[in-house]
Amino acid sequence: MNKGTIVLAAGGTGGHLFPAEALGHELRNRGYAVHLVTDSRAERFAGKFPADEIHIVPSATFASKNPVAMARTAWTLWRGLRTARKLMARLRPLAVVGFGGYPTVPPLLASTGLGIPTLIHEQNAVMGRANKALAKRVQAIAGGFLPEGRGEHAAKIVVTGNPVRPPVLDAAKIPYLASRGEVSFRLVVFGGSQGAQFFSSAVPTAISLLEPALRERLVVTQQARKEDKDRVTSCFAKLNAPADIAPFFTDMADRLAEAHLVICRSGASTVSELSVIGRPSILVPYPYALDHDQAANAAALVAEGGAQVVAQSDLSPEKLSALLASAMNEPDRLETMAADAKKAGKPNATEDLADLVIAIAEKCPIAEYKNKKKSGVQA
Predict the structure, then answer these.
(1) Residue 176 DSSP one-character state
(2) What pLDDT score was predicted for residue 49?
(3) 195 is in an annotated binding site
(4) 312 is in an annotated binding site
(5) How is this protein situated with respect to the membrane (predicted)?
């Protein structure tokens, strides 16, 4: 039985789409139709997205102060708003949920203008620009790492954690088994769409500096940009180190489950998946993030003991090599980090977010919802 339609709006990157995908699965399991509004970048993820239909709505961000560029952006946003209004009028959704990124602005603005219940989900410890622009208009703000009870919109914030996809929950069932003695040591390295370039140079060089006995144990999975893939593959071939190099891995959850150590950026989805699965990591926050949100995300996991954080500016190949050697020589420490990471995880985030979405769709006031949650009453 179809209980009605809920629209999810997300920018076309994994960081925005993965939590939306997890929520989509949960809502469909509960009997709701799900539609996705996004941009063309989402095409590589669309095959797995649990949506009855995917809609591309024009959108843009004000990235330049050039008057001509600003005029073009304004025109694109206006077209997107008109398209989104027609779409919402046709779908008549019970609620619209935004997951950040500029493609969420037209559908959320259109929905608030039409009186449709809306909320946003902010994955990071620092709110992104699109969500900041929408925060005053929506009924609720679900937070992954947002501080509860603080800030301008504290009354609207409900900390749900970040939803993770079903493959991540499956991977979380696999216990961490440390690599000891001469057993292979599985290293997973990834950096997202913006952050992989640094690792493409730093990691092969760091591995070349390891003692031969350690280097021979390594089995590497590394994400590299398309333009870097051949160079990185060649570097590992020269080191005689088994390595799987690709711009994108569709089975990343499985690879994380097999990992003994992960070296990566600290986007919100990444930190959430590492903690739910429970894997030790060296986090290198992307230094050019506008609001330094990755550093704040990393701090949340480091505080629990589940990760080490190193600024990119401090991470020479020599230092990275020393960190990797230390990790390979200290299996007991990695076991403890894995357990601490798992303690920080929020595997029920998807269900908690779905509860909030349905409450907003049913026009439950956010203060009432929060009181019910505090008292343990089903909202």
Answers:
(1) P
(2) 84
(3) no
(4) no
(5) Peripheral membrane protein
pLDDT of 372 strictly over 90: no
- pTM for the whole thing? 0.84
Quick: pLDDT tens for 50-62. Answer: 889 999 887 767 6
In percent, the amount of the chain with pLDDT more than 70 equals 96
CA dihedral 276, 277, 279, 283 (to 10 degrees): -50
The count of structural domains within the chain is 2
- Best CA proximity match to 142, nearest among 303, 133, 164, 131: 131
One domain, residues 323 and 262 = yes
- Listed in sequence order, the residues at least 6 apart from 73 whose beta carbon sits closer than 8 Å to its beta carbon are 60, 61, 62, 63
Residues 322 and 356 in one domain: no
- If asked whether residues 193 and 258 sit together in one domain, one would say yes
pLDDT tens, position by position, 189-205: 998 766 788 999 999 99
Q: How far apart are CA 282 and CA 315, in angstroms?
A: 11
Domain match, 125 and 19 both? yes
Q: Is 294 one of the annotated binding-site residues?
A: yes
Is 242 in the same domain as 196? yes
Q: Which domain holds residue 225?
A: 168-344
Note the helical H segments in the chain.
14-29, 43-46, 67-91, 105-113, 129-134, 166-171, 192-208, 212-215, 229-238, 252-258, 268-277, 293-302, 317-329, 331-343, 349-361, 366-375
Query: Is residue 15 a known part of a binding site?
Result: yes
Residues 31 and 148 in one domain: yes
Residue 34 has pLDDT above 70, yes or no: yes
Ramachandran assignment for 57, one of left (phi > 0), alpha (psi -120 to 50 degrees), beta (any other):
beta
Tell whether 13 is in a known binding site: yes
CB 56 within 8 A of CB 79: no
Question: For the ranges 43-52, 284-293, 362-371, which has the lowest average pLDDT?
Answer: 43-52
- Kindly report the CATH number assigned to the domain that includes residue 183: 3.40.50.2000
Q: Do residues 199 and 336 both lie within one domain?
A: yes
H or E element in which residue 120 lies: strand 118-122
Question: Does 233 belong to an annotated binding site?
Answer: no
- Residue 201 in tokens: 């140079």
Least confident of 121-125, 147-151, 191-195, 368-372: 191-195
Judge if 148 and 180 occupy the same domain: no
Determine if residue 165 is labeled as part of a ligand binding site.
yes
